[in-house]
Amino acid sequence: MSFKDQSTSASQTVLTEVGEAREPRSAAANGCLIVIYGQDMGRRVRVGTEPLIIGRSPKSEIQVDQESVSRNHCRIRFTGSGFVVNDLGSTNGTYVNDNLVEAEGRLRHGDQLKVGRTILKFIVGDDVEVQYHEEIYRLMMTDGLTQLHNKRYFDEMLDREVARAKRYRRSFSLLVFDIDHFKAINDRFGHLAGDAILRQLGAVLLGRLRVNDVLARIGGEEFALITPEVGIDGAKELAGKINRLIGDTRFEFDGTRVEVTVSVGAAEWQPHYEDAMDVYKAADDKMYEAKRNGRNQVCY
Predict the structure, then answer these.
(1) 241 φ/ψ angles, rounded to the nearest 5 degrees
(2) Which percentage of the chain shows pLDDT scores above 90?
(3) What residue spans of 190-231 are helical by DSSP H?
(4) At residue 28, does pLDDT exceed 90?
(5) C-alpha to C-alpha distance for 32 and 111, rounded to whole angstroms
(6) Are residues 236 and 266 in contact, defined by beta-carbon separation less than 8 angstroms?
(7) What is the helix (H) or strand (E) element at residue 226, kind and residue range?
(8) Mean pLDDT of 116-140
(9) What 8-state DSSP symbol labels residue 220?
(10) Residue 246 and residue 260 in contact, taking contact as beta carbons nearer than 8 Å
């Protein structure tokens, strides 16, 4: 079976975990911030000895023109031994690796800085230029918010799996699922909450699949999973586990619990299908059937 059974407490929120940061070889003020999610994705801003402010104000060194961002949201400065971020009394807070910065927090290599709905990755060291290009390459395949694969990568992998199925007559299955009543979550709690739920959902699912499975965020609240060498019976079982896992997980935003369920559609590649769109449409149709039948369920 392609789903790893790992114990997860239903009463504990699962947040995106960022890998342990490694210290740069040099403590010199040679770093940069890269926008990995939000407006101007891929934009790079050098971080040096001079303090810089991130905010909605046009006078900010890094302007983020979003309602969820305060005019002067946070400040990054070099202390002589490393970089720190100070929240400047922002309305919605400043986060480093999903942890709220109370007043000041240290920025380490690889940290993710969240300002409003924008996420910036901090890199520092002697090889910033190389790391920047590596990060841009990663962004071509990865969704910056959830850390899952993006639609571009998903499309490429689905085409590849279809070609393999045709050539070797090996089947595979596709699961398509999205969050039920996601618009209502955004309307009630705000878009920051919606982003947080998507990020937490990605963290719940990451690391629970086989190496060859491809899980991607393919739309706002829509996800897809390619499962090579898995027939419809296995896909049905996997879809049920995903449905139950999401339903049993405690999702929160600012200390408030948010009920989250998903509707899942599953389809197996059929010899009479012509291309990737056929198997995707089959799974997508089943997902909408699950929604019509009341949501929070699996159709196949």
Answers:
(1) -65, -40
(2) 86
(3) 191-205
(4) no
(5) 11
(6) yes
(7) strand 222-228
(8) 94
(9) S
(10) yes
* Encoded amino acid at 253, one letter: F
pLDDT band at 125 (very low <50, low <70, confident <90, very high): confident
102 flagged as catalytic: no
pLDDT tens readout for residues 218-247: 999 999 999 999 999 999 999 999 999 999
What one-letter code names the amino acid at 251? F
Cα 185 from Cα 243, distance rounded (Å): 18
Residues 149, 151: Cα–Cα separation, whole Å: 7
The whole-angstrom separation of Cα 113 and Cα 69 is: 13
Alpha carbon distances (Å) from 70 to 41, 55, 58, 88: 20, 6, 12, 9
**Nearest partner of 112 among 124, 98, 91, judged by Cα:** 98
Question: 30 Cβ partners below 8 Å, 6+ apart?
Answer: 48, 124, 125, 126, 128
Residue owning tokens 């230029």: 129
Quick check: 5 pLDDT over 50?
no
Catalytic residue among 102, 221, 252, 268: 221
Q: What six digits make up the tokens of 28?
A: 């010199």
Q: How far apart are CA 202 and CA 246, in angstroms?
A: 10
